[in-house]
């Protein structure tokens, strides 16, 4: 962990200053829908059985310092990242090889692939695919080189259910509001200012993405020309629903696009594909209005990304049912697969040729290099030369400090850091399959920062680390003919997210209960 | 209570339809700041000591039917009402007589008057006065005449702390939202439509009123040219704070006017008037920023209206201190006094000459009549001819059904209805002072309606009655010279409020825990 860049930031607060900031956060957030449903540990179901209460989403008191060049670079390369992942999703053959390799350690990936295979067999009816992506970075500063410039290193690339875009624009607005009412005491040098707090259009930009897919769907395919809608596939109990509502409301007010929410667990009960319609439109019949069915143009998945959500064969039937339909999926199964950790690992393996292969037709070598340098090196633990080298490091307490060991399996959690890695590797015994279930990744060394987090009515001040996510929207046409050329129809950078967590908390994001939504205060370093 | 106009409205809901409406109300409301802090009976202080939780403000499921002509008439006469009350506030001599009469039954009114007298003695330094008024009506339909058209009858006229303008615009928008997502099942005839849901600009219009006063204040009067602000005088614990925040936020975003909130109980601790400044600017020193004092242009009272808030002599010192200052008061003491029940009673006494006296210089007799017919007749219980007649009625069970007995004292509550009046009068014995502490008012007979109220996560369906409030903004210059002519500078109608309560609940408004904020669905009857 590098030293604090500005040890005096954020300024120390008197209790009156802290009270003023917190009271304005509490009030402005609720006035502006920057809210979550409280967790059951905060408010028990007995007190609020109908889940009507809300509370300020976990947020930071101050915008966190972030190097301006890193921020601008992360934004600048987002459209290339969008294109990269559209290309990967389009390369069915390569994805198939990766899945084959993973099959024995990861049922979830295999099952996703099986869904794709089944739909492919009967023939896809929808070639358009919508990606709402988020590329997550940490700022990395080489701890061994005082002169090193900070740079961004990718933590992960999300191709499904990229969340918090409906809240992050509001946190940016919250911190601007606190600045505008002079709630922040002055600092030397003056750091928080209109020019250091960039605009954050995530809500408008992401909902425009869904609206663009909705429009690209075209006229109804049903013979009865049903009214059109988009469908958000959601989890049964979602504390973070206001994040999603912000997009749905914007779709309605700015684009006149009607949205319904459907729990993943009830997909088969409320949607259907008419058996007599070769174009396979997806029909949604709202329980509150059974005589008015709708045709679904766009499926926006805010569920179905975690193995734990597939509780029965019917969960997979539901996913297959949706994938078969003519609705534009955000994301398609292939796009979902493109976001698996294994793909990130392959791309980031130092000798990998794939990045160039995907991008060289449209991007210059210099531009591809800008993507390349955002990868923290990732190594497989297998019997390739690189794999063997990685196993050596992973078993050597002298060399393992700057690494993290991650399970390949999706939704696994349980990362293992530094010195805890060698004994863990030892505990695996000689089982090479178990080795292959993990990857070794260079640890990113983010600068130490301080901030306060407001959560469930309480403020915690301390050292934190931040993770910048840049959203991207991409609409493309899958190349399913012999040439297999994808056609990118829309591609834009779509706002950002800063998530900040206590330095002690090595796992998880805001939803997992550890962190807070933050905004960037740009600095020139 | 008249029969239901449209007995099939609102339509009967299936449980799925009700669930859909309620779930959208729960989500849209929090997304849009249509919220309150939960009462301690819903969420105990132990669970949420920092008062961070919020819940949907009590709202109705449907917009309530309201006769279009009544709605338009209430709006059309609002500027005349604004002018009337500006005139009353300007007629110090007459107000003095009224107070004298009330002195023995109402300490609160006397104390307010004493504040005015004290400031008058040393000389007022601010001639501008801002009124944010709300005139409340019920629809009245003569139950003895089937052919009678519905008409509006005034319940009360508020000159201080007229609340819910920050929520009512949002409830209008909520019901429009539910219409736009087809959450309302169709009715025959179709009643809820874009044309039956009028716009409600209460938030923008009321905050524009405060901004107008802020601007009219002019340049700082402090020699150091302090930055200017407005000050909301609030109660210590306010569940309905988001109603107020909506105005403060609009002031900042639309008018660049900074607002601070100051509990009435801490006025003397945080404000001051420099002893060396004859113009007596009011200085507010924020506890979070003691080195940056502000000069207050406008005092917006959302506290200080109830006798219960004046807990010690210092409460009165605080009110005097504010009244002495150069800040424009919303309202001034005289305007506050103009809104006392006694004034309404005098105006509404059938033979009263005062309405004409105040308005005849600017309004036609026909226009004055339109105000006059909104009065429900109110009688004193004293030894005038009208008073004696009223006492006769009040003690006669045969004639008392259509009346309500109200205490003259402000903030009294405890209205007594119909047949309960004669035994109550009897219990007063022969004490004419106790008689004089009450007025007798014709009971308004509102049409019976049905609606559902969503409150604290629960829906209650049933018969309801609605009360329409029309907001008014008026900025005028008190005539303090010999001529005493007031000068009206700004005067507009400023949106509306429909409050709806269960028919069983004879007392109180939304804040008192009985009712809900509603919107109007206009019908032609």
TrEMBL record, chains A, B:
Keyword terms: ATP-binding, Glutathione biosynthesis, Ligase, Magnesium, Metal-binding, Nucleotide-binding
Lineage top rank: taxon: Eukaryota
EC numbers for this chain: 6.3.2.3
GO MF entry, a single one: magnesium ion binding
Positions that bind substrate: 134, 160-163, 238-240, 244, 302-305, 499, 510-511
Chain positions recorded as ATP binding sites: 156, 341, 406-415, 417, 441-444, 467, 501, 507
Segments forming domain Glutathione synthase substrate-binding: 229-338
Reaction equations catalysed: gamma-L-glutamyl-L-cysteine + glycine + ATP = glutathione + ADP + phosphate + H(+)
Named cofactor requirement(s): Mg(2+)
Uppermost EC category: ligase
A single Gene Ontology CC term: cytosol
Pathway(s) it belongs to: Sulfur metabolism; glutathione biosynthesis; glutathione from L-cysteine and L-glutamate: step 2/2
Cofactor note as given: Binds 1 Mg(2+) ion per subunit.
One Pfam assignment: GSH_synthase
Residues at which Mg(2+) binds: 156, 158, 410
UniProt feature coiled coil, ranges: none
InterPro entries recorded: Glutathione_synthase (IPR005615), Glutathione_synthase_a-hlx (IPR014042), Glutathione_synthase_C_euk (IPR014709), Glutathione_synthase_N_euk (IPR014049), GSH-S_sub-bd_sf (IPR037013), GSH_synth_subst-bd (IPR004887), PreATP-grasp_dom_sf (IPR016185)
Similarity comment text for this entry: Belongs to the eukaryotic GSH synthase family.
Protein name per Swiss-Prot or TrEMBL: Glutathione synthetase
Organism this protein belongs to: Letharia columbiana
């Amino acid at each position: 962990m590098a030293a604090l860049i500005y040890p005096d930031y954020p300024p120390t607060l008197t209790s009156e200053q802290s009270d003023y900031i917190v009271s304005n956060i509490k009030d402005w957030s609720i006035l502006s829908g920057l809210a979550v449903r409280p967790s059951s540990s905060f408010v028990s179901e007995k007190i609020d059985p109908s889940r009507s209460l809300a509370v300020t989403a976990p947020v930071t008191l101050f915008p966190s310092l972030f190097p301006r060049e890193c921020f601008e670079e992360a934004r600048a390369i987002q459209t290339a990242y969008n294109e990269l992942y559209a290309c990967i999703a389009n390369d069915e053959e390569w994805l198939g090889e990766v899945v084959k390799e993973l099959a024995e350690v990861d049922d979830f990936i295999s099952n996703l692939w099986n869904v794709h295979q089944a739909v492919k067999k009967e023939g896809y009816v929808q070639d358009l695919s919508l990606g709402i992506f988020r590329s997550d970075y940490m700022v990395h500063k080489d701890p061994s080189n005082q002169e090193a410039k900070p740079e961004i290193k990718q933590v992960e690339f999300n191709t499904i259910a990229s969340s918090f875009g409906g809240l992050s624009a509001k946190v940016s607005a919250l911190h601007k509001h606190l600045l505008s009412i002079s709630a922040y005491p002055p600092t030397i040098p003056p750091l928080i200012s209109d020019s250091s707090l960039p605009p954050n259009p995530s809500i408008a930009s992401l909902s425009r993405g869904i609206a663009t897919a909705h429009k690209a769907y075209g006229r109804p395919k049903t013979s009865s020309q049903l009214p059109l809608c988009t469908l958000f596939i959601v989890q049964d109990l979602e504390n973070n629903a206001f994040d999603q509502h912000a997009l749905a409301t914007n779709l309605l007010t700015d684009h006149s696009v009607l949205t319904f929410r459907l729990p993943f667990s009830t997909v088969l009960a409320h949607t259907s594909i008419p058996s007599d319609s070769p174009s396979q439109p997806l029909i949604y019949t709202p329980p509150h209005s059974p005589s008015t069915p709708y045709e679904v143009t766009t499926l926006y998945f805010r569920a179905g990304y975690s193995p734990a959500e597939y509780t029965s064969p019917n969960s997979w039937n539901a996913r297959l049912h949706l994938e078969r339909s003519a609705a534009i999926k955000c994301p398609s199964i292939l796009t979902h697969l493109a976001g698996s950790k294994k793909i990130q690992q392959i791309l980031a393996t130092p000798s990998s040729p794939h990045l160039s292969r995907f991008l060289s037709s449209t991007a210059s070598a210099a531009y591809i290099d800008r993507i390349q340098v955002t990868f923290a090196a990732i190594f497989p633990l297998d019997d390739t030369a690189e794999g063997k080298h990685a196993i050596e490091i992973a078993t050597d307490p002298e060399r393992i400090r700057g690494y993290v060991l991650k399970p390949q399996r999706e939704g696994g959690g349980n990362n293992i850091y530094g010195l805890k890695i060698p004994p863990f590797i030892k505990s695996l015994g000689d089982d090479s399959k178990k080795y292959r279930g993990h990857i070794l990744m260079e640890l990113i060394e983010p600068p130490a920062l301080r901030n306060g987090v407001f959560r469930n009515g309480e403020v915690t001040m301390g050292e934190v680390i931040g993770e910048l996510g840049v959203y991207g929207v991409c609409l493309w046409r899958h190349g399913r003919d012999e040439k297999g050329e994808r056609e990118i129809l829309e591609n834009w950078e779509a706002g950002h997210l800063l998530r900040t967590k206590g330095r002690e908390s090595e796992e998880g994001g805001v939803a997992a209960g550890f962190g807070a939504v933050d905004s960037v205060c740009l600095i020139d370093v």
